[in-house]
Structure formats: C-alpha cells, structure tokens
C-alpha cells in the first residue's frame, strides 16, 4: 500500500470532512431527495436531479477519503529544524526577475491549498525546492518558461 505524507493538521481536516460528509451532509441530501420525490414526476424534477447529483458527489468523496486516510503517514514537523527545505517547511522565495516575495508551506498532496499558500510536495515548485538551503537559487519549471527564485528563509513551526 502506498503511503502519503501529511501533517497532523491535514489528517485532522480530512477526518473532520469525512465525519461531516457521513453525518450531516449525507442525511441532508437524503432528506432533499425524499422531498423532491414527493413533488411527483421525477423525469422533469430539477430538484430531484440536483439532489441525486449532490448525493453522487458526497458518496464519491466519502469513498475517496476512506481510501486516503488509512494510507496517510503523519510526519511530525515539530521535530524538523534547520535551513534545508523538507516536508512541512515554510519556505520564503523571491522571484529574481519580478522581485516578488512569497512564502509557501510544503505539505502532502491531499492537503495542498493555494488559498492558504500550501503547496503539494509533488508540485514542480516543491520538487525544485526540496533539499535546497537558505540562500540557494533554484530554477523552477513554469508554463511561461523556467523561473529563477532565491530561497530567503526556511522555517519549521
């Protein structure tokens, strides 16, 4: 069985999502289907079709989470330190061309979230940064061509 690295917080979020889907969300969609059925003709009932579609999504996500969670390998990032980029690191980089500074956290593929500046360890940026140190310049593949970035800080917390 393939193991997936993840932070403890990421695992908690997945377990909470699974709990919500199996409880509140599943029950709510069952009620919505029953209510839509009560309106009669199902072939032209948009509410029924929407509820069935939502049920399909919920059941698919439950199956996905039930497959992922047992395969998680929690990495305790509190025991990692230093200035070398590894899993769980908060990495600050500066684009050498545009001078834009950004900070990303390198996390497991199932907890990556660009809204929270968390990137997957399998992403091209994370792959380029892993093993490098503060002060290193790294070539990162990008859709518009490779970009050079300098690592200005590496933190674990």
From TrEMBL:
<dbReference type="Pfam" id="PF03449">
    <property type="entry name" value="GreA_GreB_N"/>
</dbReference>
<dbReference type="GO" id="GO:0032784">
    <property type="term" value="P:regulation of DNA-templated transcription elongation"/>
</dbReference>
<dbReference type="InterPro" id="IPR018151">
    <property type="entry name" value="TF_GreA/GreB_CS"/>
</dbReference>
<dbReference type="GO" id="GO:0070063">
    <property type="term" value="F:RNA polymerase binding"/>
</dbReference>
<dbReference type="GO" id="GO:0003677">
    <property type="term" value="F:DNA binding"/>
</dbReference>
<keyword id="KW-0804">Transcription</keyword>
<dbReference type="InterPro" id="IPR022691">
    <property type="entry name" value="Tscrpt_elong_fac_GreA/B_N"/>
</dbReference>
<keyword id="KW-0238">DNA-binding</keyword>
<dbReference type="InterPro" id="IPR036953">
    <property type="entry name" value="GreA/GreB_C_sf"/>
</dbReference>
<comment type="similarity">
    <text>Belongs to the GreA/GreB family.</text>
</comment>
<dbReference type="GO" id="GO:0003746">
    <property type="term" value="F:translation elongation factor activity"/>
</dbReference>
<dbReference type="Pfam" id="PF01272">
    <property type="entry name" value="GreA_GreB"/>
</dbReference>
<keyword id="KW-0648">Protein biosynthesis</keyword>
<dbReference type="GO" id="GO:0006354">
    <property type="term" value="P:DNA-templated transcription elongation"/>
</dbReference>
<comment type="function">
    <text>Necessary for efficient RNA polymerase transcription elongation past template-encoded arresting sites. The arresting sites in DNA have the property of trapping a certain fraction of elongating RNA polymerases that pass through, resulting in locked ternary complexes. Cleavage of the nascent transcript by cleavage factors such as GreA or GreB allows the resumption of elongation from the new 3'terminus. GreA releases sequences of 2 to 3 nucleotides.</text>
</comment>
<dbReference type="InterPro" id="IPR001437">
    <property type="entry name" value="Tscrpt_elong_fac_GreA/B_C"/>
</dbReference>
<keyword id="KW-0251">Elongation factor</keyword>
<protein>
    <recommendedName>
        <fullName>Transcription elongation factor GreA</fullName>
    </recommendedName>
</protein>
<dbReference type="InterPro" id="IPR006359">
    <property type="entry name" value="Tscrpt_elong_fac_GreA"/>
</dbReference>
<feature type="domain" description="Transcription elongation factor GreA/GreB N-terminal">
    <location>
        <begin position="5"/>
        <end position="74"/>
    </location>
</feature>
<dbReference type="InterPro" id="IPR023459">
    <property type="entry name" value="Tscrpt_elong_fac_GreA/B_fam"/>
</dbReference>
<feature type="domain" description="Transcription elongation factor GreA/GreB C-terminal">
    <location>
        <begin position="83"/>
        <end position="156"/>
    </location>
</feature>
<dbReference type="InterPro" id="IPR036805">
    <property type="entry name" value="Tscrpt_elong_fac_GreA/B_N_sf"/>
</dbReference>
<dbReference type="InterPro" id="IPR028624">
    <property type="entry name" value="Tscrpt_elong_fac_GreA/B"/>
</dbReference>
<keyword id="KW-0805">Transcription regulation</keyword>
């Amino acid at each position: 069985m393939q193991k997936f690295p993840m932070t403890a917080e990421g695992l908690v979020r997945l377990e909470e999502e699974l709990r919500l889907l199996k409880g509140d969300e599943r029950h709510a969609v069952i009620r919505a289907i029953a209510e839509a059925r009560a309106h009669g003709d199902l072939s032209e009932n948009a509410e029924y079709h929407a509820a069935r579609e939502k049920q399909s999504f919920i059941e698919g996500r439950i199956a996905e989470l039930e497959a992922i969670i047992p395969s998680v390998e929690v990495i305790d990032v509190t025991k990692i330190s230093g200035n070398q980029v590894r899993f769980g690191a908060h990495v600050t980089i500066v684009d050498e061309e545009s001078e834009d500074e950004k900070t990303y956290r390198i996390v497991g593929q199932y907890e990556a979230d660009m809204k929270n500046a968390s990137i997957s360890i399998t992403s091209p940026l994370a792959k380029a940064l892993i093993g490098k140190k503060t002060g290193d310049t790294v070539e990162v593949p990008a859709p518009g061509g490779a970009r050079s970035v300098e690592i200005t800080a590496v933190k674990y917390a």
